[in-house]
Amino acid sequence: MFVRLRRVIPALSKAERRIAETTIADPRIVVDSTITRLADVCSTSPATVARFCRSAGFGGYTEFRLAVASAASRAAAVRDRFRIDDAEIGPDDSAADVVTKVAFQESKAIEETARHLDLRALDAVVGALRGASRIQVYGAGASALAAEDMQQKLMRIGLPVWSSVDPHVALVGVAQSAPDDVVIAISHSGRTREASELLAVARERGATTVAITSVPDSPVGEQADHVLATSAHGSRFRPGAMSSRSAQLAVVDFVMVRLLQGTYDAASDRLQLTRDAVAAHRLSNGRHAARSNGSPT
């Protein structure tokens, strides 16, 4: 429910955006209010509230209000599981509070991403990757961490994958794309200029384009043949770049596991080769060995 609202916010008018933001910030206002009362709280009209409900995919205010009540109840149950009353981190929270709330927010981002993920899009992406002649993954800023993670994992199972944080280098690679290539752009906001530009060039070249973003109806999402949507939102002490990372990495893992399911034997052999290749570079437990030999630590 709240995931849906966050995703439609960029397409809403200013008045409708106030309604969405008020609902997300304090769902009880909606649960306890008539349409007229909510309109007053949001400094707008009942007609605008009704239009907002339709924009958000509901038949009317009654349906919207019931959905908010149900979502608020589920959110309260999850907070109870983590034994917290308020998920937002405050400046005076203790270390224990911060650890618990961050754990809650990470868990919530992954859970909501999994619940709302388009599974047909997931399998379409996996099918394209299996048959790709070349795969290019791009992410800027914090999203570059997820791009690097995806590159490393795809490389370990023998897929032809490249990734560069330099947008010029990435553009040079994408400009040479062919119809059997796959280009993946990762952008939490969906408004990263370079990510949108890369997908646009890839589409012109006939490659399959994929976006991993929390805003499907965004410039990056609109350039993609397939969108794998994440669910994460920032807060005062955890900006979007921070909160989106776990959801992005979860999507990468969803893709990887589906890939492995279809090619497990071959992929398993390649994984073993990569483990063997780096085995000699792992240090033994020197402290434990020293103690066993009676040597000083």
TrEMBL record:
GO terms for biological process: carbohydrate derivative metabolic process. GO terms for molecular function: carbohydrate derivative binding; DNA binding; DNA-binding transcription factor activity. Residues 125-265 form the SIS domain. Residues 1-75 form the HTH rpiR-type domain. Keywords: DNA-binding, Transcription, Transcription regulation. InterPro entries: Homeodomain-like_sf (IPR009057), HTH_RpiR (IPR000281), RpiR-like (IPR047640), RpiR-like_SIS (IPR035472), SIS_dom (IPR001347), SIS_dom_sf (IPR046348), WH-like_DNA-bd_sf (IPR036388). This is MurR/RpiR family transcriptional regulator. It comes from Microbacterium sediminis.
